[in-house]
Amino acid sequence: MSPTPEPVVSELIELLSLERLEDNLFRGQSRDIGTKYVFGGQVLGQALSAAQATVDPAGGRRAHSLHAYFLRAGDIDAPIVYDVDRTRDGGSFSVRRVTAIQHGKVIFFCAASFQAPEPGVEHQLSMPEVPRPEDIEPAPAVPAEVMATLPPKVQRWMSRRGPFEFRHVYPRDELNPPKRPPFQQVWFRLSEPVGDSPELHRALLAYASDFQLLGTANYPHGISYYQPNVQMASLDHALWFHRPFRADDWLLYAIDSPSAQNARGLARGQIFDRSGKLVASTAQEGLIRVVPDAQTALLVPAKE
Question: Would I find Iron among this entry's keywords (predicted)?
Fold first, then answer.
């Protein structure tokens, strides 16, 4: 019998377990994790859950890639409807297109591809040499006197106990960020064990893959999402699944940002399990605007 997850983990699993309205139509709820709008990882995970629900598990086909675009900011207080198009079921591959709709408007769409297992050539890049997660101390809590000086949005984000635990190989003070090269490595795992469903672990990884990624593009500029004059929003997201993994065991997220320009930043990630196997890869481009002051940030939407 699988262990009973803690409430914060069970809430995430419930969030990714969509209500089926029709054969290809699903509804998901949202959760406020301290962001102004719906967290992009939530939409990624829910869209993948919807797509997976339309692929016959008996055929052994598993998601191997997902390519997504974020079109509008999501409303935390409203449900999201996911419409799945069964684009193709071929001899080895299946493709699904998922459209996320809120208040009658498309806020997101993606294509997900599924493949039946088959043998073939195999290689991978090596995992970076970093300390093991057990050798890295958890991040200390923000002192109460510092927390009291932060905007309510930032307080909610920094005081939350999320379903994933993160341990940064080279921690950075996000409230007073130094300038650094655009690289980081982060160990992460779901904070409690869950069941063995590969579909669940893929949806959980899709959710978690949106953390840390775009922020790496800020490193050379000494800026942070927490600063009131910085606007950030995901524009697109790609995710490839390479090998089996568990989201409730430690995974290393090795991220770099090769470019930032024209108010956009690009970040790439490789996700390794603790034995060094490359289990997934990611890429994301996002909007990064530094506006004159906090008041301007409130008046100018991150996405028009």
Answer: no
